[in-house]
Amino acid sequence: MHTMTDRFADALHRLDADRDPGPLVELAGDDTQLVKLDEHHQTRGREGAQTFWTDYRDVFGDIETTFTHTVVGESSAALEWTSTGTLRDGKPFTYRGVTLIEGDEEQLSGVRTYYDSAAFLQGRSGTA
């Protein structure tokens, strides 16, 4: 799972910088389940991954994610991160969260992300 964790982090950095969800979509399979914060934001498969990552990136003007701690197991990994940048309306933000990925070195079977939503709900910078 170490290689997949690195591939995931690299793909997320590409999404941040280039708005290109392609590398993240390539990590998904037909049955990959993607869940954001709560069960109201979940998709499945490659088409779902395209929607999931495009919708995620569209919230931001600029964004940079820094991974601060990673725990890697045989078939899963937890990646703690801090993201900073601007929202679409130009307001600056900082928020922190954790993304859990599951799968093997070839393909993800699950992505679940949990984060501090205060930066978005209150229109201000938030920290967890």
UniProtKB/TrEMBL annotation:
Residues 8-102 form the SnoaL-like domain. InterPro entries: NTF2-like_dom_sf (IPR032710), SnoaL-like (IPR037401). This is SnoaL-like protein. It comes from Modestobacter roseus. The lineage of its organism: Bacteria, Bacillati, Actinomycetota, Actinomycetes, Geodermatophilales.
